[in-house]
Amino acid sequence: MAPLHTPSAAAPPERYPGALHPPVTSTGGVLFHAGDIFGAAELQAMRLEGLVRLVFGGSYLRSDVRENPAIRSQAAARSIPQSVRPRVALGRSCAAWVYGCAAPPAVVSLVTDHRRRTTALPPFSAAVMHQVALGPFDVNRVGGVAVTTPLRTALDIAVHGEDRDAVDILRAIGRDRDLGCPLRLVEAALVNASRVPGKTRALSRVRTARRPADRTR
């Protein structure tokens, strides 16, 4: 895969083209990042007044605007050092959250192709970097931010997700028709993949997610 930041690399496609043009409001926008128009203390005060709500990190959304994948991706991106953003993609639990299939992550999970050089994250960063093999169709853009595709995200959750929520996240991804990622496709991709660590456990998670959820829990 060509590096995400080089001119020769084809730009990943935008999953939600309409999200690139947010509505114009009396405040100039709908998503506010601490340190831009308003400081962190001002945004926190606005939150207490019910004018905005926290999305992630230091990013807040107007209370009268519905949160969507583009809003979440842009909020997560602001937690990443600017010098690193063009070189990485949001992945794993963070990507699942962007798609509305998981709770907000404790830290931002980033993926970068292991065959390319990238800038290391600074100490005490709000993100964690995973160097992985990325195929040419593993990344798309959401609100202008590079995010792993639903299929790649589901595969990563199956392999690397936490036991407490991996199956629930997989069910949510498979259930969302807008994502176009049925779990039978995830299972087929795993079955045909080679050199996947934890493949047996990953397949078990996907097959469990394909079964109807136990409503007695």
Account of the 3D structure:
It is a single chain. The chain is an alpha+beta fold and 217 residues long. The chain is 31% helix and 16% strand. Strands 1-3-2 form a three-stranded antiparallel sheet. A three-stranded mixed sheet has the order 4-5-6. A hairpin with a 2-residue loop joins strand 2 (52-56) and strand 3 (59-62). The radius of gyration is 18 Å and the shape is globular.
> Order of strands across the widest beta sheet?
1-3-2
The main β sheet shows up as: 3 strands, antiparallel
The strand count comes to 8
Q: Which oligomeric form is depicted?
A: single chain
Please state roughly what percent of the residues sit in beta strands, choosing from under 5%, 5-15%, 15-25%, 25-35%, 35-45% or over 45%. Answer: 15-25%
List unreliable stretches of 5+ residues.
none
Radius of gyration: 18 Å
Helix content: 25-40%
Shape: globular
| Class of secondary structure makeup | alpha+beta
Q: Return the string of H and E elements.
A: EHEEHEHEEEEHHHH
Mean pLDDT: 89
Distance between the termini: 43 Å
**Secondary structure tally, helices:** 7
